């Protein structure tokens, strides 16, 4: 393992110190491992709290700021944060207008946020939750953990963050969050595994001439392993399952995220393959974002997210945002 | 009465579980890297380090206090799915113990059952889903059967340990339906479930602690 670390056990604590040093407009609670906006929540504004395992940067801490999240709880690498972190964040950002928990659909995240919401409710804070489950690589069923939450989370945090900034109430925020969640689909592919610092070696072995189709963002293997293909063929492997899963025709916000170890030049090359496939299928790419937004440590791979968007979602997408990870319009 | 598990014995259980988790940490992480996300061993070890430190500091005098401390510490230090699941197990286990100062075979069986029910309620898994339930359910069943036939806590614990091991091994051919391994679908078959493996360590630790008490 070659990494820019001191001790595998200190990676998260030391990275949080670096985030504080790089972004003085944020407040990082190093004990609770929560990243907050520097200013207190405006009275009457619904607060947005997200969080999850670390190793997906810039998500979630990089999306804290004006027009997006009020707080993000950082768990250990690929491990959900704990209920006491989430409770501390929820109490700190509630202005009295209530708090929305934005949760990615993983067993650990869901269980810990559930416990935190129960604890917050016991303290008189109104908490609603949206669970993002957009990964079409996972067969959904009543009898499984369901689909994973991936790229749609980023789009949701941006859109809902803008609505909260405009003063929408918690009911409206929850309805909007569910609408974004229901309209988003994602699919990922990996050329390499990733290396969790505490494990010290790649999570899985992937030969030079093979790739994993349908990977998540935790180094868990995908649904199938196939021979390495050309960019044009891989683009189809990403687009087809999304279009087969949902009627995505009409305006859409499209995110192509690198998984941490893929150069931007390849990401743009892939977007050049993907955009025409989408347009040909009737998906109007109204807004797009290409880059490392939801990553899996050092995994070479990309994930495509398509969110079918109405006028309100597009307007909120364009609204000002000032965070380390997304910044425009301000 | 002689032979009942005292708070001291139960602290011994927790310490022995800590030792076993440390001993098998790499193995648990290895199992988790095959069908999960390669962190089960390190997360549980971090949680049990904190538990042992907290139990030493608090020096609980009843089983209920002990398991409340263990459960809350796991919930607040482990994260992932194992934090709430193991935490809920111990919180319910302690709740079942009530004000008793020592637990006989029947009371320990009831506590084990309460813990199991808590894990099922929190995680919504059923037997055969390839989870910790697949080791814990047969363990609780074997404990109850032994206790009903008048076995000592030690004999009941041995029966539960054997049943947990069998249950753990039964997860190998299963296709995971809960947790992160479920994303693999059919590819999860052929591998031991890391949660069932660590749960078996938990029951082995109980049998070990009672044998040396």
Automatic annotation (TrEMBL), chain B:
Alphabetical list of PROSITE patterns matching this protein: DHAL
Residue stretches making up the DhaL domain: 8-208
Pfam families: Dak2
One GO cellular component term noted in the UniProt record for this chain: cytosol
GO annotation terms (biological process): glycerol catabolic process
Keywords of this entry: Kinase, Transferase
GO MF annotation list: glycerone kinase activity
PANTHER family registered for this protein in UniProt: TRIOKINASE/FMN CYCLASE, TRIOKINASE_FMN CYCLASE
Listed NCBIfam families: dha_L_ycgS
Protein name: Dihydroxyacetone kinase subunit L
Organism: Microbacterium hatanonis
